[in-house]
Model the fold of this input.
Amino acid sequence: MKMTQRLNESLRFSISFVILLWVIHIFQFITTIDLGFLGVRPHTTFGLRGILFAPLIHDNDGFTHLISNSAPLLVLMTLIKLFYRRVAVRSFVMIYILTGLAVWLFARPVYHIGASGVVYGLVSFVFWSGIFRRNIKSVVLALIVTFLYSGFIWGVLPYQEGISWESHLFGGIAGIFTAYWYKEEIEADEAPKPPPSWELEKEDPLAQPFFLERDTFDLTKEERKRAEEERRRGGDEDSWVRTNSWD
Done:
């Protein structure tokens, strides 16, 4: 698949999800219906639905919350779909579910909404994939993400008013786990390249010249004598053919 096609496919992956977030939020804004009750409410049965729905719901007071999540989602989802094609969708789903589940298990007993936990998970996934995979591509992507989103580290600090720091923290942990889980599923361009042919020749003992036949010392004296006689007879026949050949 050409790079342009891969980029288009990756953009469709990220843009589709962000459009879904905007459609839901515009619906909230127009109808003034607050969908916050669909968020994660820890330790409650009805709060379990938030594992699926919480990342889709944002603060209904305005668009600031949604805008702050939309840009990094576009960048990060495009990156993982473009460069980690084999595991992109599975990684996204794993981060999505694990973040919500961890918030339900361990967070404060309030409603937790927004996709910021998923954003932190994606940042963590790209960074730690560079640590676990240790190839040039993954390390470069980790450095890019560090440069773009290093300030996100402050989002995991507790007791920030109006912010689900637990979602940030558990999203980051989910990203680490996901990066480790899929570290062996490398892409075609991450596979180690075979050494050059001249290095193989240098290292291959079978490629070296020998003064004796390789099986000389494996043969008995009688077997070596028979082999020598057969070679001599073969040489005599070749000589006869060369002497009596005609055009």
Summary: The two ends are 58 Å apart (CA to CA).
